[in-house]
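Sequence in, structure out.
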Amino acid sequence: MTYDVDALRAEFPALRAGTAHFDGPGGTQTPAPVIEAFTDALSRPLSIRGTGLPGEVNAEAIVGGFRRAMADLLGAQPSGIVYGRSATQLTYDFARLLARTWAPGDEVVVSRLDHDSNIRPWLQAAESAGARVRWADFDPHTGELPPSAIGDLLTERTRLVAVTAASNLIGTRPDIGAVSRLVHQAGALLYVDGVHYTAHRFVDVAELGADFFVCSPYKFFGPHHGVLAASPELLEGLRPDKLLPSTDTVPERFELGTLPYESMAATRAAVDFLAGLGDGSAGDRRTRLRSALAAVEEHEASVSTPLEQALASISGVTVHSRAADRTPTLLLTFDGLNAADAYRHLAGLGVHAPAGSFYALEASRHLGLGSAGGLRVGVSPYTDGTDVERLLEGLTSFLRDSRTL
């Protein structure tokens, strides 16, 4: 089946405003079926989950549908899918929980490639437990984080390694499978930030070897919240603080309060929408998702490759996204010019490419960019050639106008 980007774009009401969106790494736009699922959930009877009245049955069906959809997307078990307000909130919750088992002298490994949400919670949890933090550095020239950068830090006292599956700043995708083998040989747990990864590549948590894997549906057409996947057996051994009357069943014991059914319904719809981008109705949802993510990768490469080639020919532009395996996410800086000014210039032309470090503060500093970062250009499944033309024209006029001042 031919990937029809025009038909896809027609499903997104927000695109009618005319903005060329390169802000997908911060969150994609929302397609009509996902919006409809959100409003449909609120339009039907809803109440605390149960098996009697329509509102109870609807709530129960929504929660079950959400867990099954996310399990299909991530290659996990429905009973290992935990809802959270955000990936940051989930990581803080699990960092505090896991740190209860750490002792002074234990070690935690974090990566400078990561978003701060997969760094700061572990640093703070380690401090509270008296554990030592060890830093894995990526190569600022290539953007690569080889498995050895983590493997060389592992000792018999390592309790957990936290690492991203894809950098939200420069797109680098480390070899998580190789990392997981090293981590597990050392007897430690692996916590993987898959927020940026899940939007661009088919996920198999078991194949990656992640003990914990977090993502955010709003990066792949869904509503704003987080999801954590882990094996139910691993979750069974963790005892979070909770209210006495609340259920102790996994995964519900980690979800405090009444769940937002409308967001869960919209997330299920987002997974179904994503599954429809491949070979139509061929196979079960997991099979269709594999096909869909392959089609998405192929389309994004067809857009990002000529974009990168064009940027390479523009004098004064430095592209910091250089890893061999990475998402279609580019970080740009400009000789003698401020990336924030480039953002404002592009915004005036209806092109959204934001500037900053995007919470990847350690990565930005390690690249020599301080806290300012650069201009981030992210290609999404609905990005087309016209968007790229507008971006390139905008950058060219920004550089031309800035040099004539």
